[in-house]
Amino acid sequence: MSVIYVLLTISICVAIVFFIAFLLSVRAGQYDDAYTPSVRMLFEDEVTPQSSDEVAKSNPKI
Amino acid sequence: MENRVCYHCGDTCGKHSIYHDGKDFCCHGCKTVYSIFTENGLDQFYELEARAGSSPFENQEKYEFLDNQEIVSKLVSFNEDEIQVVELSIPTIHCSSCIWLLENLNRLHPSIINSQVDFPKKRIRVTYNLNDISLKTLVLLLGSIGYEPYISLEDYGKKAKTVDRSLLYRLGVAGFAFGNVMLLSFPEYFEVEEFWLDQYKVVFRWLMFAFSLPVVFYAAKDYYKSALSGLRSKILNIDVPIALGITILFLRSTIDIIGGWGSGFFDSLTGLVFFLLLGRFFQQKTYAFLSFERDYRSYFPIAVTRVSKEGVEENIPIHEINKGDQILIRSQEIIPVDGILQRGNAQIDYSFVTGESRPVAKTAGDILYAGGKQLTGILELAVLKPVSQSYLTQLWSNSVFDKDKSSAFQTLTDSIGKRFTIAVLTIATLATTFWLLYDASLALNVFTAVLIIACPCAIALAAPFTLGNALRIMGKQGFYLKDTKVIERLAKIDVAVFDKTGTLTTSDVGHIDYEGMELTSLEKDILKSTLRASNHPLSRSLYGLLQENDIVTLDEFHEKQGSGLESRYAERMLRVGSSSYVGTVSKDFQEDTAVYISTDEGVKGRFVLKNQYREGIAHLFSNLKKTMRLAVLSGDNAGEKETLKKMLPKGTELLFQRKPEEKLEDIKQFQENGKVLMVGDGLNDAGALAQSDVGIAVSDNINVFLPACDGIMEAAALPDLTWFIDLSKRSLGLIKACFALSLCYNIVGLYFAVTGQLQPVIAAILMPLSSISIVAFATLGTNYLARKSRRFKKLI
Questions:
Q1: CA–CA separation, B791 vs B785, rounded Å?
Q2: CATH of domain B301-335+337-389
Q3: CB proximity B40 to A under 8 Å
Q4: Which among B126, B135, B505, B669 could bridge B115 via Cys, Cβ 3.0 to 4.6 Å?
């Protein structure tokens, strides 16, 4: 049953990794503005005329 | 006629619409913005949200102070190696199209490296290369596309604000520890006499101990501080039993695991702190785009143009203005100091100060007070007093602005917490005394158990969740409060005081009455044509009234600045203007704003402009009258006294010609008889708003300047004021119900504690159960109350 020590260590390490990730994200200001990124995310898929041409070239069959 | 809407900003186009590129525009500004966007491949702006634009501003001279490098260096937040970073507040940001456009600024100017929008705060952060662009060009560029930044004295030399994220850290720590401790204590809940459990439980227990350390010593730190400061000022606030509970929980659990007597209460301890912090987090809802702390500085300009004796113009920060300086005020600029008008035609809009939007005309030699906005044309002023000693700004030297209202107020939670603490300590002592006599070995156990179980977690959660939710509900209805304490204060109001101009009246000119001899239709035509040529705001309002008349080409037209107009058509003379200009003695000049008309035949009559009251005011007053004393404080003359008397219920006190400091004193007088609610709008109400128990600023546009206050209300929500007060009262009732509910849990828990059979598993069930049920009860309860009373209100 001493495997419990290994398991405990692993589980706590994983938890601590996530905890540190949370602290870093707070520190980087990710929680300061919780609204704008949700809107900004939707702008990335902007289809410009050039890119649609490129798509057409790469798929000549369509 | 078909109603055309501007493709860019969505305003109705009116008669003078511009047709361009197959689209309608309301003005040249909007057309220009459209052209800029299409030329730079930013047409997607219109696809994201139709008609999302804002019309551009017209005045560019206003930003000449940005040529002064000293001023610029105080505004930018980073300035090195030709790279500057600046954070600007842009009140016109309102939709996703705005975000998209402002984050694509580099397409409009290649030297802009990066721009990022913070939508809730309505701010933009721009990084740019100084090689081809300066702060001034950037500001003008933003202005030209309809996003004029709002730069005020408040931004000047401001240090970069450090965001307070400590609550998030604490919440993270407590949540992390709570989850892990729960997991680790799970095996012991069942107390199975298993071989491996007995063997390893020491490890589990010490791990739990380790996890609880950061919770006790970091996450819960604020509670000890608050309890200590409460005790020092001899107040038993709710944090005293909380701090006591946390400490006892930790000590007893530690002793338990050292002695091997049990697994301790680490799960309850971490869970308690986590839920308490969650309540705080929920309560901390703030309206980031609104500022409740503003004074005149957020409204005054940063710099002003000074003319030296040699006639050289230079831009200087307004702190450097001295008595006797000559300064220039351009159109749309705000007068920062008291001064004597030397040259120019002054049309001053004092709406920020008094709420009165009708401009005041001044001629050379008159004194101009700080706070007014020049409408058109350049003025030259001789400075009488430096900024800090001007008539208006002096108000802020009053000590009332340094006082913190909320610290003096005892919240419902605190007043109940006091009785609660006394009761708990009594029960603990009695139970311990009993067990000391009966079975001394259990005495310490019982004493700690009582303090643990009585830890008022549920009580401490009831207020944050109820009030936090009420705050959100009110925000949705157009009433934004500074914090949840305002709700409690609002529920206890005895006197309601209203400002008149701008609060009870709308900002636009209401109805215009004509008094005197009937005008012939030809005279009306001439009048309309005469008014058409004038830019005076009174002329514009009158012009709008005479829509049915025709426009004729005048033979002659003169404008005498500050007094009136004269025109000639078909051998007929017409004069429009002040009473002295048209040649009559005004009967009651003090009491009304009037425009006089005279022809060759003498004075014909006058147009009297009346205040337009907001809809639902009379109804609001008669509703409020049932429960409280009412008063109206006005800075104006008594011209409206009769109208107000007719409209408002009997017994409403009407006070006229109150100066800003007098308003403050009036509020103090009212406070002798109870809690006072002040509803105002302008800078002249700032003192009264600060002095009152609850100060509410009313505005048609909540993004423009408002004085410091406890709550900001959209003008449309003002008739619902009774409903808001009612909701706050009901919320307090709900908190009391929550207290009763949590008391039931405490009694059940106390039974276990007093009889000495409190097991960790009972605490672990009872504590989260009571917390969660209180949170659910509080949240659902406020939603129900809001919906129920809303329906009730509609029936009236």
A1: 10
A2: 2.70.150.10
A3: no
A4: B126
b (16+ CB within 10 A) / e for B618-649: bebbbbbbeebbbbbbbbbeebbeeebeeebe
Chain B neighbors of A22, CB-CB under 8 A = 172, 176
pLDDT digits (tens, 9 = 90+) for A31-40: 877 788 888 7
User: How close, in Å, is residue B302 to chain A by CA atoms?
Assistant: 28
B592 touches chain A (CB under 8 A): no
Give the closest-approach CA distance of B99 to chain A in angstroms.
7
Query: For the structural domain made of B512-609, what CATH number should be given?
Result: 3.40.1110.10
Contact: B169, A26; criterion CB under 8 Å: yes
Tokens (6 digits) for B37: 């966007």
Assign a CATH topology to domain B61-155: Alpha-Beta Plaits (3.30.70)
What angle do the packed helices B457-476 and B760-795 form, to 10 degrees?
30
Answer whether B487's CB lies under 8 Å from B731's CB: yes
**What are the C-alpha distances in Å from B730 to residues B81, B268, B470?**
59, 32, 10
Is B103's CB within 8 Å of A40's CB? yes
Rounded CA separation B294/B705 (Å): 8
Cβ of A33 within 8 Å of Cβ of B119? The answer is: yes
> What's the confidence (pLDDT) of residue B61?
67
Residue B172 has its nearest CB partner, among A5, A22, A40, at: A22
- Specify the pLDDT at position B160: 52
Average pLDDT over residues B473-491: 86
Residues of B in contact with A3 (CB under 8 A): none
- Are B263 and B760 a contacting pair, CB within 8 Å? yes
- Determine the residue of chain B that is closest to A38 in CA distance: B96
Half-sphere exposure of B371 toward its Cβ, with a 13 Å CA cutoff? 25
Q: How far apart are CA B159 and CA B74, in angstroms?
A: 9
DSSP B77-96: SEEETTEEEEEEE-TT--SH
Tell me the CA distances in angstroms from B187 to B181, B183, B617, B758, one per residue in order.
Answer: 11, 8, 65, 18
Angle, to 10 degrees, between the axis of helix B135-144 and the axis of helix B28-39?
110
- Calculate the average pLDDT of chain B: 79
For residue range B4-17, list pLDDT tens digits in order.
777 777 777 666 67
Arithmetic mean of pLDDT, B463-485: 85
Are the CB atoms for B82 and B129 separated by under 8 Å?
yes
Stretch among B215-224, B369-378, B753-762 having the lowest mean pLDDT: B753-762
Q: Smallest Cα–Cα separation from B213: which of B168, B246, B256, B182?
A: B246
Would you state the structure tokens that stand for residue B530, as one six-digit string? 């005469």
Number of H helices, E strands in chain B: 25, 28
For B150-200, the pLDDT digits (tens) are 877 666 665 555 667 888 899 999 999 999 998 888 877 776 667 767 777
Contact (CB<8Å) B176/A36: no
- Whether the pLDDT of residue B796 is over 50: the answer is no
Q: 3-state SS of chain A: helix, strand, coil percent to 5?
A: 70, 0, 30
What's the rounded Cα separation, in Å, for the pair B220 and B165? 15
Closest C-alpha to B732, from B284, B282, B413, B479:
B413
CB B346 within 8 A of CB B314: no
Q: Is B569 helix (H, G, I), strand (E, B) or coil?
A: strand
pLDDT in the model for residue B174 = 94
A2, A40, A48: best to mutate for the B interface, most B CBs within 10 A: A40
Average pLDDT over residues B397-411: 67
CB contact under 8 A, A23 and B179: no
Are A36 and B118 within 8 A, CB to CB?
yes
* Beta strand spans in B700-760 (E): 711-714
